[in-house]
Write a structure and sequence with these properties.
- Helices cover 63% and strands 14% of the residues.
- The protein is of the alpha+beta class.
- It has a six-stranded antiparallel sheet. A five-stranded mixed sheet has the order 8-9-7-12-13, sandwiched between helices. The protein has a two-stranded antiparallel ribbon with strand order 10-11.
- Helix 3 (90-105) runs antiparallel to helix 4 and helix 5 packs across helix 9.
- The longest helix has 78 residues, at 111-188.
């Protein structure tokens, strides 16, 4: 329905009429003022002409009475001035020209005769000017009267017209704004049943109809939203109820994984907790240190418990994204999967690093694809826990290992020594301690450089790692000194193993940049406790004294501790 611009026309009319009335009054006033000014100029001009004519008559009389050149020149000048004043009136100019010509032709005649001929001309000129002045005064008076009536009548009418139109427009606007204001307050309070009365066909009526349409539409929208909210609340309740088990299991998984100390414990936790979410089975495979092979870390259900496979055998590992396959899906199955069920493979990613692959089994392919969100949450929680466990083991390893030789450090020796002494006391077996030192180690650094010195320590650490049992504790005690703790080892066996270490070290030949070959020898001090409760510091001092005896005897030898 097209909008009727009646209100716009009323506003335009209410503005235009007063403006036109004001313009009319202004034009009439300006016209009257202009005519009045012209009348004033005309009066002045007419008076000048009359005065000049009177002056010409006086000068004419003086010239005729006593004709002299001076008086004639005075008459001519006055005549020229008068002629200039009537230059815009041809009739007056002709009269003035005839006056002078008559004077020049009648030289020698009597004064009375001349004056009788020129007096009517002068009087006619005066009469013409007076007539013109009267006519212009009448026209001016008419214009002034018209302007006066226009001002006295037009301005009040204009004011009354503007006031009337303003009152009408104000009433019309108030007829909508007041109900609209009350309606908006009720809408703001939540009452959407309110409607604004529609009267007329102008723009205000259109606004009222649009407001009513808007409130009706808003009311329908609110009703739909409430229905949708009820449906959503029902679905949320069902989802919350369905996901309670998921949240509990994921929380339990994160709690236990955070408390794990070793990867073996983590694998056991995964195998026990994961079946609550994925009962058909699954497995977790981690990348080996070489990064070119995946090793089975944990498995549950019908998934195989061991085995290794290559990363390129899994589509998830290749694509770097989740991959679902199985009956009902048009997707290739991974070569490492031989279950025949629906399978979902997900990459384990944490801290910007790929840790491995999680493989989960479902009844068919669509079930695997539908459970992808749950599987991804499970995998992310698992990846973060495994990354934290790996970081914890790395920090533990760095805290007890010497970075140069890979052997245990002095801190680990002091922590382990007390436990080994207590166990030896409980079991009643001997505990032997070897302290060894590289002979003339300072010369390696001074002559060949610190790089060669570090190489000597690394090679010696390698020899130490091969010479002793897994239960023996081999440590770099400090600088070029090493300590070996031998549980359940008699004094004679300790001496034999120390001699074997010395011999193996003597056989080392190291290549240096400035030498064809370097040999390394060590001096070893041996002490043994026979199962009585001893202090670790006492045992270390005994081994140190034995080492001192070995060096005093010429180095490259083994010496046992002897009590003074």
């Amino acid at each position: 329905m097209p909008v009727r611009r009646s209100l716009e026309r009323q506003l335009l009319l209410g503005f235009t009429l007063p403006v036109l009335a004001i313009i009319t009054v202004t034009v009439l006033s300006l016209t009257a003022f202009y005519e009045y000014r012209r009348h004033a100029q005309t009066v002045t001009h007419t008076r000048d002409v009359i005065n000049q004519v009177r002056t010409l008559q006086i000068l004419e009389r003086q010239w005729l009475v006593a004709p002299t050149d001076d008086r004639r020149e005075a008459f001519d000048r006055a005549w020229a001035e008068t002629f200039a004043l009537v230059r815009d009136d041809p009739a007056q100019r002709r009269r003035l020209q005839a006056w002078r010509d008559d004077l020049r032709r009648s030289e020698g005649e009597a004064l009375s005769v001349r004056l009788q001929r020129t007096l009517p001309v002068a009087q006619e000129m005066v009469d013409v000017e007076n007539t013109l002045l009267a006519r212009r005064r009448a026209v001016t008076q008419e214009r002034v009267d018209a302007a006066q009536w226009a001002v006295l009548i037009g301005l009040p009418l204009t004011a009354m017209l503007g006031a009337g139109l303003g009152i009408l427009m104000l009433r019309r606007v108030r007829s909508l704004t007041t109900p609209l204001l009350l309606a908006t307050e009720r809408v703001q309070a939540g009452d959407l049943n309110v409607r604004v009365p529609v009267t007329g066909q102008d723009e205000l009526s259109v606004i009222a109809r649009h407001f009513n349409d808007m409130t009706a539409s808003l009311q329908r929208t609110v009703q739909e939203q409430r229905a949708l909210q009820r449906t959503l609340e029902a679905r949320v309740d069902s989802l919350v109820e369905a996901s309670t088990t998921e949240l509990q299991v994921l929380s339990q998984l994160g709690l236990f994984m955070q408390a794990c100390e070793t990867q073996g414990e983590a694998a056991e936790v995964i195998a026990r907790v994961a079946p609550a979410l994925f009962p058909l089975g699954g497995s977790v495979s981690l990348l080996a240190e070489s990064r070119n092979m995946l090793e089975r870390f944990a498995a549950w259900g019908d998934a195989p418990g061991g085995g290794t496979w290559l990363p390129e055998e899994c589509w998830a590992s290749r694509l770097g994204t989740d991959h679902a396959a199985g009956p009902g899906l048009n997707a290739p199955r991974c070569r490492h999967d031989r279950s025949g069920l629906g399978t979902l493979c997900l990459t384990l990613n944490a801290q910007g690093e790929t840790l491995g692959v999680v493989t989960l089994h479902f009844p068919d392919g669509p079930a695997a694809a539908q459970a992808q969100a749950l599987a991804r949450r499970f995998t992310d929680r698992l990846a973060l826990s495994l990354a934290n466990l790996r970081l914890k083991e790395t920090l533990r390893h760095q805290s007890v290992r010497d970075p140069l030789t890979g052997l245990y450090n002095r801190r680990y020796f002091e922590e382990t020594g007390g436990r080994e002494l207590a166990r030896a006391h409980r079991q009643g077996w001997p505990l032997s301690l070897l302290m060894l030192d590289v002979d003339h180690f300072k010369q390696f650094n001074d002559v060949h450089g610190h790089a060669v010195g570090d190489m000597v320590l690394r090679r010696l650490g390698h020899v130490l790692g091969r010479q002793f049992r897994e239960e023996d504790v081999v440590c770099r005690y400090g600088g070029e000194e090493f300590m070996v703790m031998l549980p359940n080892c008699s004094p004679q066996a300790a001496l034999e193993r120390a001699e074997a270490l010395r011999t193996a070290t003597e056989a080392l030949v190291l290549a240096a940049p400035d030498s064809s070959g370097l040999t390394v020898t060590v001096s070893v001090g041996v002490t043994t406790t026979t199962g009585d409760r001893s202090d670790l510091g006492v045992l270390v001092r005994q081994a140190d004294q034995a080492l001192y005896r070995a060096k005093a005897q010429g180095r490259n030898r083994v010496a046992a501790y002897r009590a003074e």
